[in-house]
Amino acid sequence: MLVLKAAILLVVLCISLNKCMGQSIPACKYPTSQWCDTYDIAGKCGVLEHCVSSNATKSNGMSVNVSLYYESLCPGCRFFLTKQLMPTLIMLEDIMNIELVPYGNAQEKQAEKYIFICQHGEDECLGNMIETCMLNKMGVSAYKVIDCMESAANVLNAAKPCAELFSPDTPWDAVMDCVKGDLGNQLMHANALKTEALKPPHQYVPWITINGEHTDDLQNKAMSSLFNLVCSLYQGEKPAACTVGLKSKRGSYC
Known about the structure:
5 strands; 3-stranded mixed β-sheet
């Protein structure tokens, strides 16, 4: 599907600039997956009109908002993020928004700084913190980095290589300064507050809310096929991808 989306963007570029059929296309140092990350990049790559139109669709109140409350080393969370959430975002990014909240079943204690205790140990706390800081420092590029990390055999070992691959403009030192400093501590505290404020309270992870709502039915449908759920809930004109569908893949819980 990435190839398909790249082809679609190229067609948009050709039409907007009237430079197809062997004629030149302006040089663009960014991969197609990043063309709509910022308006500056969109302008440099000649797809500003397309990206503005896409963002207008997402900001008109019709888009489906999916929030994932998870833990970096939880097997069920990793499965849902890599096999359901990210593939659905790639296919349906024009009609959905996502939010990642790395914290899950962790606990916090207040001392000079907040101290966090995680379900799968200290490595998970570090993974949660790294991904939280990535979200703060990288913006939407963090989604690709986190997907890369969670797809790897070792989440922590994959963090730096994935960051260098999918967010090369973000210095790794900036991420680690956040992880080790006050900013990361406060960001994780914010994740704790957000998780603790869930209504109904979360009972396990992955815990999924759709447009701010959690029910057993929504959870089960999201775990079975998030793609079909988003397509069914979208109130605007259905994108062509919704006629294709994705095979159901169900994960487990932590």
